[in-house]
């Protein structure tokens, strides 16, 4: 398929990721995603015959890959640079949406889902694992102890996710700023 024929599909995936990060999975319908993405409702069923769960899984992977690309681009310069890139990204998302948008990966992870939601939860677990792996690899490459690198990577991902939730609740980037400052000091001490 050509890139132009994939454009409506990508619009739907990006639109779903945006709605999930703002409203959660359970409050997001296929009809609303189509409207939000300015795509015909019928195209959602054409591109996503598995329905909402298929679209949500792809939206989670899309969001995950967006962050992974940012990390890959910045982690070569070092884990502190990767951390700073994440801080900048989250500050921009939070302030740019008036604290209405969080992380779609987290959103699908914490919502109660039926057995059909296992695919979406698996996508979220895969994304979180990918972020941890990228961070751990960079930490090891820049001198962090091989056993401590995965632990520190888990701490970074967990701290960011929690800080984003707090920022949304408090309508301030204070929690993100505090987490970033402490994580930067911790990473600097490890590498």
From TrEMBL:
One Pfam family, short name: TetR_N
SUPFAM superfamilies assigned: Homeodomain-like, Tetracyclin repressor-like, C-terminal domain
PROSITE patterns registered for this protein in UniProt: HTH_TETR_2 (PS50977)
Residue stretches making up the HTH tetR-type domain: 6-66
Keyword check for DNA damage: no
Keywords annotated in UniProt: DNA-binding, Transcription, Transcription regulation
Record InterPro entries: Homeodomain-like_sf, HTH_TetR, Tet_transcr_reg_TetR-rel_C_sf, YxaF_TetR_C
DNA-binding stretch(es), residue numbering of this chain: 29-48
Family annotation (Gene3D superfamilies): Tetracycline Repressor, domain 2 (1.10.357.10)
The protein's name in its UniProt record: TetR/AcrR family transcriptional regulator
Organism for this UniProt entry: Saccharopolyspora erythraea (Streptomyces erythraeus)
Record lineage: Bacteria, Bacillati, Actinomycetota, Actinomycetes, Pseudonocardiales
